[in-house]
Specification:
Elements (H helix, E strand, L loop, with lengths): L10 E5 L4 H12 L3 E6 L2 H14 L4 E6 L5 H11 L3 E6 L18 H17 L3 E10 L22 H22 L6 E5 L4 E2 L14 H7 L7 E2 H13 L8 E4 L9 E3 L4 H4 L1 H15 L6
Parallel strand pairs: 1-2, 1-4, 2-3, 4-5, 5-6, 6-9, 7-8
Antiparallel strand pairs: 9-10
Helix pairs in contact: 1-7, 3-4, 4-5, 4-9, 5-9
Length: 297
């Protein structure tokens, strides 16, 4: 299928679906006829997102799945509640900034626990529901290139900036996806990475109940469109990775413009670190040990 093909009969699960890039992935998938399951921590924000999507796609086939990726108990409950075939899982939800001592309810580092370990546990526990040709898309970040990831110490106390730890957590998620692609190499399933580039709210179309940006701020931000893009544009490479026929397992997609900040979806280059098979194997073992969740594949 191409990037605008009809997705009727296909089901996608999108985590962090009530705002930002996740919201736009849902709207774009729903506009093409897909059934979309919104994995959301806040029921109120999920309802707001569903209402906003239906202002654009009145017949959207949507379902809200309560999901807090910072809680292994919530992840396990969501996997049981899902109980339907899934054609794509978009691992999007993430904490972008946190204090060094912030922890999840399971006492993991907040960013690593939410952005990576929660998604690892989720994909492992919905594996039996995945269609034979399903895709798992890990939403990565340009920041992964500047991250040093030690699989043996992924939950260790970190130093430096919150942005650097965010990069580590995204590098972990991407390393997992590339390792999953290797483990699925004899399967018709795919594991793919994608990133949204540099996507900002002032360049994003208005939707009721979502991030509200004053008109003056939008006007002042308009010239920056030559360098960056709205979050609707940031969702395009991710949706492309989840649906397009030209995508292959182990791919990495992002905006094709300068510095990968904006532009049409294109194959881009991930760091050697996140593509390392030895790092992937070590990270996989660490994730199974920390979460207590064995991965069937």
């Amino acid at each position: 299928m191409d990037a605008t093909s009809d997705l009727r009969g296909r089901t996608a699960l999108v985590t962090g679906a009530n705002a930002g890039i996740g919201y736009w992935c849902v709207e774009q998938l729903a506009a093409r006829g897909a059934r979309v399951v919104l994995g959301c921590r806040s029921p109120e924000r999920a309802r707001t997102a569903v209402s906003a999507i239906r202002t654009q796609v009145p017949a959207a086939d949507l379902r809200v799945l309560p999901l807090d990726l910072g809680s292994l108990e919530s992840v396990a409950a969501a996997a049981v509640d899902l109980d339907e075939r899934v054609d794509a899982v978009i691992c999007n939800a993430g904490v972008k900034a946190a204090d060094r001592g912030a922890r999840t309810g399971d006492d993991f580092d907040l960013m690593m626990g939410t952005n990576f370990l929660g998604h690892f546990a989720l994909v492992a526990q919905v594996e039996s529901l995945l269609a034979p040709d399903a895709r798992v898309v890990a939403v990565g970040s340009i920041a992964h290139r500047f991250a040093h990831l030690d699989p043996a110490g992924i939950d260790a106390e970190w130093r430096g900036s919150s942005l650097r730890q965010y990069g580590r957590s995204k590098a972990a998620l991407m390393t997992f996806a590339f390792e999953l692609a290797r483990r699925w190499s004899r399967s018709s399933r795919m594991a793919v990475c994608a990133h949204p580039g540099y996507a900002v709210d002032p360049l994003t179309p208005r939707r009721p109940g979502l991030a509200q940006v004053p008109g003056l701020v939008r006007a002042l931000a308009a010239p920056s469109r030559i360098l960056v893009q709205g979050k609707d544009g940031g969702a395009l490479p991710i949706v492309h990775a989840a649906t397009a026929a030209e995508v292959f397992s182990g791919d990495y997609w992002g905006p094709g413009g300068p510095l990968e900040f904006r532009g049409a979806p294109a194959r881009v280059v991930a760091s050697d670190g996140v593509r390392s098979s030895s790092a992937g194997e070590a990270l996989w073992s660490a994730a199974e040990s920390l979460t207590g969740v064995p991965f069937p594949s």
